[in-house]
Amino acid sequence: MMHTGKAIKVAIAADHRGIALKKKLAEFLQKNGYAVKDLGVHSEEPSDYPDVAFPLSKKVASGEFDRGILVCMSGTGMAICANKVKGVRAAICDNLEHAKLSREHNDANVLILGSKFVSDEAACEISKAWLETPFEGGRHEQRVKKIIDFENSQK
What we know:
Blueprint: E1 2-3, E2 6-7, E3 9-14, H1 19-31, E4 35-38, H2 50-61, E5 67-72, H3 76-82, E6 90-92, H4 96-104, E7 110-114, H5 120-132, H6 139-153
Helix pairs in contact: 1-5, 2-3, 4-5
């Protein structure tokens, strides 16, 4: 998939409960033309989701990656962490419509998947739809701007 003339750069990471799905997603996205970087974890040893969520989110917020995908068991822990990082708009998506709306209306730049709630096939379809869906702008632009303005007002 193209983004400003080059492959969209996608960072992907998971804790131990999302590692299997993360591996399948990374392979699927690479086969579909995305530039994917796996930021860990690489072992099924118990791990803490903040240890992967914060670094990935910071890399997306800085522009090092165009988008990010985080996977844990429920998605909630990753979403809480990701949304603490200024410049990140993370959305837990468990179906195609949710994925598309998170992009169209919220300009989400980090996708959160719960391995307990989406099959491998659904996660691949959700991720592809999320990556391909553009932000609509228009009336949604002012809403996203309010989020950015609020973030910028925080000390």
